[in-house]
Amino acid sequence: MKPECMIIRMGELTLKGRNRKRFERSVMIQIKKVFASYPSIRYIPEYGRVYVELEGAPYEDTLKDLKRIFGLSSISPAYLAPLELKSIQETALSMMQGLPKPPKTFKVSVKRVNKSFPYDSQEMNRLVGGYVLQGMPGLTVDVHQPDIELRLELREERALLFAEVIEGAGGYPQGTNGKALLLLSGGIDSPVAGWLAMRKGVELEAVHFHSYPFTSERAKEKVIDLARQLASYTDSIKLHLVPFTDVQTAIHGVYKDNLLVTLIRRAMYRIAEKIADQNGAEALVTGESLGQVASQTLPSMNAIGRVVSLPILQPLIMMDKQEIISIAETIGTFAISILPYEDCCTLFLPPSPSTNPNLRMVEKIEDSMSFLPELIEQAVQQTETIRVVFGAKKEAAEQHLF
Ligand code: ATP
Ligand code: MG
């Protein structure tokens, strides 16, 4: 039995009083995109949810896309029956028999909107529950903690039944929480950080630092592939590619010791902030996770983060690597991230990077590098910006903007 309807529930956004209308509008745009090739779809919006009558649109395919929409808390396949006892009972039984994971316990909840229906909620509960129990030996009723809640809504014209509740992506609808600039490396962490920011409704642009020819064209391709995977959640992402070779080699030319990573990171952040300002981004997003490497201790993060005044969002900061990897797998970035191409930050690594950089010392070294501001400015000027589009063919996908 194929679902004839879907109940799509909006998540946290229902809590945000004044913004609700705007959020619902934004989420509806995304939902309608999923069903764009099925014009006979019917939408019935209600508070915090929308009923979609599928009218022949494929359930599995559209579900896959709906699960990627931020701002949706859950989705239920639903079935329709005429307002007539026998049909309702039969629909309830086939729906229960068709559940992907057979339940051991269940309960029935009835909502009777149509007051002219001959049986009241209590009676319907018993009549439908009893019928299902008869048809599914081994199933029992548990009113407190059932595996499955069979819900029956007796509406004005028809009965609506559903039981399965499929988790949605959660968060806030696309672009409803401002814009930020993601520092996107080729690693596992930063794409996950970006996705978590997007899930909170943050519109993302991304910046990547490459050190061509020390890093290869393939390394850059890998980052474009990661950006494309992230773009699958929004349509497209603007990616700024910063030529970082001159900055890195110039710093390395005069200083090679344990504060090198701190110095290079500070230069990176300075460039990122300028690009953020030029593009109206109000925060930076990075993939640090506390304690993971030398530059991710609190003293390091303090010494690095001070060079910018924009907020630095670090969604992974308190997560364990395994948790990060599991999100990376779910969102489809892991397989790309583990490809072997080198990152610019692994170049020129000092033998023992400081885990406790002295800020005064760092600033003193920087003061002696009079060439630095100009090289930073130059890197910003020479940044190449492309728009990475999801879905389009690879060659056609990257549209050069500058
Ligand atoms: P990731 O897995 O994201 O590469 P990491 O664990 O390797 O992170 P670091 O190398 O310390 O950690 O980088 C910390 C953060 O700095 C990254 O998550 C990313 O946001 C940013 N970053 C590092 N290298 C680059 C780069 N080449 N271009 C843009 N951002 C970078
Ligand atoms: Mg890395």
Notes on the protein architecture:
Belongs to the ThiI family. Pfam families: ThiI (PF02568), ThiI_fer (PF22025), THUMP (PF02926). It comes from Paenibacillus aestuarii. Residues 60-165 form the THUMP domain. Residues 393-397 have low confidence and may be disordered. The relative contact order is 0.11. Strands 1, 2, 3, 4, 5, 6, 7, 8 and 9 form a nine-stranded mixed sheet that branches. Strands 14-13-10-11-12-15-16 form a seven-stranded mixed sheet, sandwiched between helices. The protein has helices at 20-34, 59-66, 85-97, 121-135, 189-199, 217-231, 245-254, 260-278, 298-305, 321-331, 334-337, 359-368, 372-381, 394-397; strands at residues 5-10, 42-46, 49-53, 72-82, 105-112, 140-141, 148-154, 158-162, 166-167, 179-183, 203-210, 236-243, 284-285, 312-313, 384-389, 398-400. It folds into two domains: 5-167, VC0802-like, CATH 3.30.2130.30; 179-400, HUPs (Rossmann fold, 3-Layer(aba) Sandwich), CATH 3.40.50. It is elongated and about 85 Å long. The longest helix is centred in the C-terminal third of the chain and has 19 residues, at 260-278. By secondary structure, it is of the alpha/beta class. Helix 7 (245-254) packs antiparallel against helix 13. A hairpin with a 2-residue loop joins strand 2 and strand 3. Magnesium ion binds next to loops. Magnesium ion binds at residues 185, 187, 343.
